Amino acid sequence: MNIVSNMAVFSSQREVFGLPVCDLDWSEAFSFVSALADVPIGQTVISFLNAHNANIMLKDPDYRETLERHLVLPDGIGVDLASLAAFGKTFPANLNGTDFVPALLTYMTTPKRIGMVGAKPEVLRRARAAFEAHAPWHEFIAVSDGYFGEENSAELAKEITRHKLDILLVAMGTPRQEKWIDRYIRPEHARLVIGVGALFDFVGGEVPRAPEHLRRLRVEWLFRFMQEPRRLAARYFVGGPRFVGHILANRASYHLGTLKRALS
């Protein structure tokens, strides 16, 4: 059983388009997620909500239902804008997976067995080596790259069980990774499971990170677009305005509902 429905009550949350998203600062998030990794029963799956996968969620009911079973952390300026429009304040921290997961591994001082699934084979190997250098007290197991079909998923799940993991990192991209985790990964595979998107690409040196000053300004998306304009143009320059449209529609719906309640 996924214990997030029981444990999440200990975490402050606010809704983004109806989806509960954790409302924690960095310190609170580290403490909370680290504690979840030590729970001896059940399982917690962590996903991240940003503007791109919020757009997907709003047109894919199966994906929304999947995220509702996960513990969701806020990622990026888009969800901050949605929170600002709905609640008058941004989230306390930008808990994007690219920064949060490596920092979480450093925060966890008790050694863990951490499995890795996803990315290209060579990128997976480099990412494992980078994680071993980053947090050498943990044991990292490169279980599988991300190039497997649906017909191999059940067998891969059995292989994951064999490694007796504490934590499983899955890097397949949204929404594939969240749906795959939801379909195949159970408590016997790992107590804590995190969908990490492109993290292995960043850690393995396949994709460069934006300079620190751009990350502080919250414009890493612009740096990424400059690196891969063809692939990311639609996401940022079509998906971005669409996301803003969802924010405005959500705000208008809220005010209309308030007005109807006042008049009834």
UniProtKB/TrEMBL annotation:
Keywords: Glycosyltransferase, Transferase. It comes from the Bacteria. CDD domains: Glyco_transf_WecG_TagA. InterPro entries: WecG_TagA_CpsF. One of its GO terms (molecular function) is hexosyltransferase activity. This is WecB/TagA/CpsF family glycosyltransferase. NCBIfam families: wecG_tagA_cpsF (TIGR00696).
